[in-house]
Amino acid sequence: MRKSTAPIKVGVLFSQSGATSTIETSQLQATLLAFQEINEAGGIHGREVIAVHYDPASSPGTYKILAEKLIVEDGVRTILGCYMSSTRKAVLPVVQRWNAMLMYPTLYEGFEFSDNVIYTGAAPNQNSVQLAQYMMSNFGARAYLVGSDYIYPYESNRIMGDMLLEHHGKRVAERYVKLDADALDFREVVADIKRQQPDFIFSTVVGRATGHFYRAYAEAGLDPRKMPIASLTTSEAEVAEMGAEVACGHITAATYFQSIATEANQQAVAKYRRRFGADAVTNMCWEAAYFQAHMLAEALRSVGTDSIQQLLPAILGMEFHAPQGLVKIDGANHHTYLTPRIGRVDASGQFEILQAAARPVKPDPYLVDHSIKDWSSQVTVASVG
Q1: What CATH number was assigned to the domain covering residues 8-121+261-337?
Q2: How does pLDDT run across 258-281, given as a tens digit for each residue?
Q3: Which of 88, 142, 254, 289 is spaced 20 to 30 Å from 196 by Cα?
Q4: Fold of 125-259+340-381
């Protein structure tokens, strides 16, 4: 039987317009870079991998429509995509109905499992637990929670609130802003923060609104050395958009920072900049999008088909040397072993890494154990203040 030489089509759903287009554009570029590298290395047994990409415009409803179009009309079996949890939730029933696969490269709130999804972003025990511990140990346990108005911030704030209570802390306030919030929407929030003087602010604001929030904080004369914004969602992409002078001193928990000083990461960053410009910055969601595309290619090479019945078993348990270090797909819960880190924005707009785990942490999407022992016992880098 003659082997097929036809290209292998992979669906790609990342937004180039709308509220979260900055971070999603970086995820799209990471995917395209990985596909370029895969094809330059010979593709999948000589077959080119091509991206069938649509712009869902940061809209959950559009994500759902386009996911069905990719599967039914374009004939793809795997979709790489989604940033917001609301968009993942919209795509989930589509891939389940058609028995396709979604690879999701974004940190999220956990408490989900699907046979049709591979989760390559951080679960709560790989960022929320570490951030709570660091902030309470170094600043105090009175937190002011601010988020965008959709599922991920609500669930992340619930988790943070639980951890504050477990450590005898306090949720000073919990506020939400619309997804496309502008500077005016944050004026009263920041005024209330200034009145209440929490030990730190926990931000799950996403998209362009992030810059408005940090700028309002700076204009109010608040000091990140005393009362920083701590975030799971503020990455190098948002910092570049708002400006380093606004973001400097604030803290993020992530499994990847561009500043990781390994040869593998530096090579990946250099390749990215050669293709997309010298000012391009990587981030945690960029990195997950990049390595998941390479893991998909490895699975395709091993089974020779994009049928999910054969592809999924090849991905489960797979290891890959990503820019952050070794990653592995957990065969039981479809999430990924990742290496937690804490970083603080410096004057150049990059993250100074304050703490890092010595080895990848097993994903626990249901937070069966809120304990921080698997983090604190493995810290290899630490500084205070």
Answers
A1: 3.40.50.2300
A2: 999 999 999 999 999 999 999 999
A3: 254
A4: Rossmann fold (3.40.50)
